[in-house]
């Protein structure tokens, strides 16, 4: 059982190593670039000027987060919740999580599961690959931040603490895990990867919009609790707040429920 | 619990339905250890469905399947330790090399046999194996599929359309391999619709039609039950016999210089009748499995 899982994990990681390395380096470079931008703004004393440029109605609507964001730490932390970064990471998680559907679609599963390999092992493989890939990408993101801070942070600037960066990483990792779980549950029952991936992607997009709507429009606030992104609160961390264990628990609970559903569905279905 | 006395494969009232459509309906059969069993039927007859149930890739609606006495559903892992499989549709990753594919599948399988000998037999060189599968021809992919199945030392080989896409030389190489495999005591369960191939290599056959088992018999028995074709040409014009034709024979075409008969059973009575006639030539053709099975197929098409 363990041998079969290990062989499949090695195979899957080998197949996506280019994607992981490429995206990981891009994320690290993006994060490095953000520290350069933040350092430039500090050197130019531009944060106070930028804050002054924010109209009052925006300042009151955004609350203290607008001012928190207009800081060295705020800009450096941006890479941990920027929509492009979020989209890239969630997309990779969905891509990896839908591998079982891809193997059914291409009939590769006929070659692997016709051997003494349990379906449990195939599902476990996907989870292990998700964890390894997610952890690797987040590690490269942190490496980009660390490199940028080490080499180019201006002296005396208020740097983001390790605790803040780790909290942002855990928060981002939780939302990645959540969508990986959802995608795995969908892929376990799907015949085509594109269908599972598209449904998971559409759900993520709709959930993101719902959360955005909830933040911008009071009547939608209660409904936005249905969105997993409601439990992804990086600005709170950037503003100096602590990581909400409850939020992480909700996101990880969705991830676990998705994984469990994936196991059950994949074990019972015709492949 | 496995048993030496258990059939290599047992299907017990196996049924698989997709909604209202019955892909398999109440199919029961045994395959004995050491035989080559041909599983025949037109496309969509239920051959691949049966095979996929044996491998626990799909689950039956009712009935059971066993391999060496082990339930394919309850003891799927132990069953698959005893099975090597060549799928009809080969889902190789096109961007992997042949070698990487064989290595991966070998690591997932059980004990391996000498792969080099198989590669030589099917004329796949080390250079071929270093190439990506997307560069392979259909025949090369098939050869790779055959090698990945035969590189396992499993006692039961399940082959779905094994010669599809192979050239005649490679087909011959496969037939020889099948024969050697049988001699080594392993069992082969192969689906096919290439009837001459089945006739040549199989000990017994089962024929599926629209998910139902319509024939289960040794190949020799099927052939024996079928009519031989006898064509008699005469030097001089001969009138048809005044009485009935000899027992077990029927006239297909009768002209003054040619009689064309179908004879089921011994030829003696026909030869006795011909002894006094001016015979020029007698051509006796043994029945081909293809002729017989075609009839079953046609009945299905007409029903």
Description:
- The complex is a heterodimer of chains A (271) and B (303).
- By secondary structure, chain A is an all-alpha fold.
- Chain A is built from 13 helices and no strands.
- Chain A has helices spanning 2-43, 46-53, 56-62, 64-69, 72-77, 83-97, 99-106, 108-112, 119-152, 162-189, 193-216, 234-238, 245-268.
- In chain A, helix 1 runs parallel beside helix 9 and helix 6 (83-97) runs antiparallel to helix 9 (119-152).
- Chain B is α/β, with parallel strands linked by helices and 303 residues long.
- Chain B has two domains: 9-223, 3-Layer(aba) Sandwich (Rossmann fold), CATH 3.40.50.300; 228-286, 2-Layer Sandwich (Alpha-Beta Plaits).
- Chain B is 33% helix and 29% strand.
- Chain B is built from eleven helices and 14 strands.
- Chain B has a six-stranded mixed β-sheet with strand order 6-7-8-3-9-10, sandwiched between helices. A four-stranded antiparallel β-sheet of chain B has the order 2-1-4-5.
- In chain B, strand 9 and strand 10 (212-218) form a beta hairpin.
- The radius of gyration of chain B is 24 Å and the shape is elongated.
- The relative contact order of chain B is 0.14.
- The chains are: A mainly alpha (271), B alpha/beta (303).
- At the A-B interface, helix 1 and helix 8 of A face helix 2 and helix 3 of B.
Into which percentage range does the β-strand content of chain B fall?
25-35%
The largest sheet of chain B has its strands arranged as: 6-7-8-3-9-10
Domain count of chain B, please report it. Answer: 2
What is the radius of gyration of chain B? Answer: 24 Å
Number of strands of chain B: 14
CATH superfamily of the largest domain in chain B: P-loop containing nucleotide triphosphate hydrolases
Largest sheet of chain A: none
Oligomer: heterodimer
